[in-house]
Amino acid sequence: MTHTTIPAYAAPSPAAPLERITVPRRSPGEHDVLIEIKYSGICHSDIHTARGEWGERAFPVVPGHEIAGVVTAVGSGVTRHTVGDRVGVGCFVDSCRTCENCLAGLQQYCTGELGMVGTYAATGRDGELTYGGYSTHIVVDENYVLRIPDGIPLDAAAPLLCAGITVYSPLAHWQAGPGKKVAVVGLGGLGHLGVKIARAMGAEVTVLSQSLRKKDDGLRLGAEHYHATSDPATFEALAGTFDLIINTVSADLDLDAYLGLLRSGGTLVQLGAPEKPLPVSPFALITHRRSFAGSMIGGIPETQEMLDFCAEHGLAADIELIRADQINEAYERVLASDVRYRFVIDAATI
Question: 163-294: what CATH class?
Answer without folding.
Answer: alpha beta
